[in-house]
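All the exercises in this workshop are built on plain-text protein records. The record below serves as our worked example for the rest of this section.
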Amino acid sequence: MSVTIRQTEDFAPIRALRMAVFVEEQGFTVESEFDDLDATSLHLLATEAGEPIGCARLFTVEGEGRIGRICVAREARGKGIGAALVEAGVAHFRADGLNRAALSAQVQAQTFYSGLGFAPEGPIYDDEGVPHQMMARAI
């Protein structure tokens, strides 16, 4: 089966994926998971055989592309879907003429993002008990 990544305005599959991964699996609160950025962000949805298996949201802060809420359904992990979502985000920002992309990485996932060319920036900080760090790369 092949994986498709596309932009979507249908928030239902995005919400379901983020609820499963961030709220149910990782213990983040619903209130922190869904915020005002969702209404103004571009959302990427990864599907396989028509089934939602991953997502990410894209937005811009002061001329810098930001990739956030990157998640992959448990049963679809290890297939390169997370990397494909990040690269799709980078490609989108590059096409928009931006030259830098950043993300807020869970510290336990830093090696994954480093493998995609992102480097740590600034101090490690707490997000609901989970250590995070900003990471960025030129695009």
